[in-house]
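For the sake of clarity, the format in which proteins appear in this thesis is described at this point. The record quoted next illustrates the convention:

___
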Amino acid sequence: MKKSKLKPFPQDEIQTYSLQSRKSKISIKEFSKPFSLKEGINQFIESLPDILAGKDFKEFLSLMHKARRKRKAIIFALGGHVIKVGLNPLLIRLMEEGWISGLALNGAGIIHDFEIAYSGNTSEDVADQISRGRFGMARETGDLLNRAINSVKGQEVGLGAAVGEMIDSSDFPFKDFSILGAAHRLDIPTTVHVAIGTDTIHFFPLADGEALGGASLRDFFLFCSLLRNLDGGGVFINVGSAVILPEVFLKGVSYVRNRGVPLENFSTAVFDFVHQYRPYQNVVKRPLGKKGKGFYFIGHNEIMIPLLAASLQSSFGKK
């Protein structure tokens, strides 16, 4: 066998140091602690390791408590998936307990929320329905939502308020499960941000582009009023919206700052089951000022949001 002219680097004469003298990133002081079911949710949170997302989650809970004590805005921006995975009862409880001061939804959000209130069911089999030209053709969804939106055309009422009032004042058998209905009942501002053509109700005969666009534009400026109260300790949380709501948030922050509000020292968080570009850039990174803090928590909404809700009800982070 032909010998290589290149000689292996010698193993001797390396420079070493004592492990005890080295600065390390992880210490047993930060490790998780054994947890007993008898100890409750507060001790469970305490038992999480003070490392990476475990540390971030504890810090985020503390910031949520501070925002609530200071009466700063706590805004939840929700994609339609959040409703589809059954989180409405938890979100309604958070609203009732003062953990949500404002809501923002995309167009899919009002569709799924209405269908839950009206029939107790939502989320059709798209692959099956679209092959037959039946996707999105549920009559009551298209007719009643468009009627509610058209009813405020030209008025100083936004899309979220129009749909919320319609559900709250209805005799729908399952309206107690509606986050829009609950927000209207609790007088929590709710905004809806649509892109024309992205929602099934837009192709119904009653759909009116002027009514849709006008109501959603009014909601944008109402959303900006909500953002104003983030300044000095508020929290903005994006759950399950990959594009629309992160984009609306970024533009809203720019508009509010342009109007003279500094929007400093607030926190943001994204909860989603994958890491995505726009939520990271537009919610966690770009909008923060010199003292803001952004968090990104990855996990299924149907697990992470119940964990968040239970954690907020604990005493952890109250001080």
